[in-house]
Amino acid sequence: MTISYHTSDDILSSTTAVALLEAGIDQFGQFGLKATTRNIAEKAHANIAAIPYYFRSKQGLYLACMHYIIDNIFREIGEVMIPLESTLSGLTPEQAKHAYLNIMDTYCGFFIEDPRTHTWAQFIMREHANPTDAYHIFSERYYQHMRRVQLKLLGKCFGRSEHDAKIKVQSHTLFGQVLGFLVAKESLLESLNQRELTADDITLIKDVVRQHTNSVLSADL
Question: Does pTM top 0.85 for this prediction?
Answer without folding.
Answer: yes
